[in-house]
Predict the structure.
Amino acid sequence: MSYQDELCKQANVNICELSKTRKIFLWIGGGGIFLILFMLLRPYVSPQFLHPYILDNKGVIYALCIYLLASICWVKRGIFRRRNLLRMSILLCSILLSFAFLELTVRKLSPTPMFLPLLPTIPNVREVRGKIPLRGISSYSRHSTNEWGLRGDPIPLNWAQTFTILTIGGSTTHCLYLDDKKTWPHLLQEHLKTERKSLWVGNAGFDGHSTRGHLTVMDAIVKKVRPSALIFLVGINDLALSLDEKAKSGYYDNMRVTPQKWEHPWDRLRTFHLARQWKQVIFDEVAVGGVFHSNGNHTVATPEEFTPLPEDLRQMLPSLEKFKTNIGTLIKNGRELGCQILFMTQPMLFDDSERWENIVGQTFFIRQGGLKISAATYWRMLSLFNQSLVKCCAELDIPCYDLSNSIPHDEEYFYDPVHFTEAGATLVAKCTAEQVLRHFRF
């Protein structure tokens, strides 16, 4: 009698005598019963630390994996003899030691983010971008980060005695393709240093971030470093939450823009960060390198080709109310931390003129699906967010600079509908410096 037959006899189980087809049906039926019990009992018997796994929509996948593993272990239980357990222990230890060596090597070559791992704050990055095909931007630019993973000068050693400013926003604050010395936050620092030498401006702009993402930045960065002042440039990505088809399905939430109250244990591993990035490249087709911005291309259309819209454009902007709420929360959090605050409205190449009425409003980062609107309508929609921002700040007695009406709607200042050229960043820095000197107490 074989060892497996002996085990079956000892367990008083006749599974081994069943045909292959019946074994498969038995396995599937057991899986179905397991899933039913899992769905019914998981809210009541799951430990607190497992809630992010078990109660999540992916919990069913995790449960099926556990059932599959348990089934294999039961069928192949003969391998759990002492000799085999010793071999598996040696193999497991070898894998863990190899992974630990890999993790240490990766951390040495690419340090772990200083703050919330979901934020791309990789310290001491040094990149040189070449052949940038964007209007109004030098062909080559340097992109680097300091020891906190933010664009900007090194962190001041005498932080408490330095007037520190964080600029918070999306890609129009980050200025991805502009050289380190040509971004508007850096130029702002140069302007302000004529008034106060001990001053530092850090760039906490992250591509794709709406006010939802800014709440994450407040919680993960601002609360820890407590700068003297905050400058927000907001609006365009909150508009995207209303127009983008992917945003409506949760795309932006999954791309770091929803405040995260719980940190995934895997996020502490640098190898996991790189694996997630490869997953984005291979499966999600997310561009993580190269130049994925482009110059704005203007397509002419007749009025009949545009999507019919309601007279009140607010009906097209479901994210507008949440935008107002988030602004209030940002102001409240900033005040609690003792920060001086300045908000700025988002400028745009388009405006409400005949020039843009028959031009199709297109941006590479807002995937509109079947929606086709004019460039002038784009501006009217963004203006609703800008007007709401001005009103919210006025009600809460916070300075708000209407930057959108200070930057000319001219291609000299924008290489696409919203991103600044070098001339645009220079003008933004000059205008912002005037407002900082007017409203902030140094």
In short: The beta strands are 126-129, 141-144, 163-169, 199-205, 229-234, 340-345, 400-401. The chain has a mean pLDDT of 83.
